Sulfate ABC transporter ATP-binding protein
Amino acid sequence: MPKKPNSARAVVILENLAKTFGDPGTNKPVLEDVDLKIAQGEFVALLGASGCGKSTLLNLIAGLEEPTAGSMEIPAEGVAFMFQDATLFPWLTARGNIELALKLRGVPQPERGQRADELLKLVHLQSSGDKRPHELSGGMRQRVALARSLAQDKHVLLMDEPFAALDAITRDLLHEELERIWRHTGRTIIFVTHNVREAVRLGQRVLLLSSRPGKVIREWRIDAEQKKPEQAAVLANEMTAALRQEISRHV
Ligand SMILES: Nc1ncnc2c1ncn2[C@@H]1O[C@H](COP(=O)(O)OP(=O)(O)O)[C@@H](O)[C@H]1O
Ligand SMILES: [Mg+2]
């Protein structure tokens, strides 16, 4: 029987994590007392208002920023990151962008082509590998970016509002794709969003971040039953109310 996420080993552990930009004597912390344990294979959605510190938290986990206080454990191999903008190299094809990530990871040349084809297939782009980014739709570009972040072959994948710029139908499709890929690859995913429906749709656990300072103030565990439309709508309303209350503290 598969282990429940809360009984699985924690792969990301944050304790009393804090971050202040600039002089801590004069500037308010962006994040304070962030305590978080994320289990192997878990899909966690981090939900919070714009500017509350979601990207800062992901950047700390990714090692792109240094914490001001607290401690952090992440896998020794590091983590993979997918941003909101695909930032693909425009002069490379979809396959070329993925092969570059494989090259940077040290995969030898003869294996790269086959591995890139497998990844293109995984994101349903097997027939578009030779297209360059400007020939692809926004949704297709994000699929390439997803394949490229999977090419890094790290167990933990951080995603910072990767579908925020897409239209609703494309986003729904990508939610299905991402869920399938998560199940297929067994990755641990930390997915940042300000979209309540997206958080309920994807997360096994949704964490609500407060603003100024950002810390985890609420948590919902969501099982398959609660993802059914009626229950999901109730949960989404509850989260929206909590998010609104949090935003209204600051206006
Ligand atoms: N490099 C930085 N230097 C100074 N302030 C920053 C920096 N990065 C983020 N901030 C500030 O930290 C706060 C949180 O930003 P961010 O983490 O981007 O929020 P979110 O991703 O939730 O929208 C904002 O007030 C932002 O202006
Ligand atoms: Mg952000």
Summary: The chain has a mean pLDDT of 93.
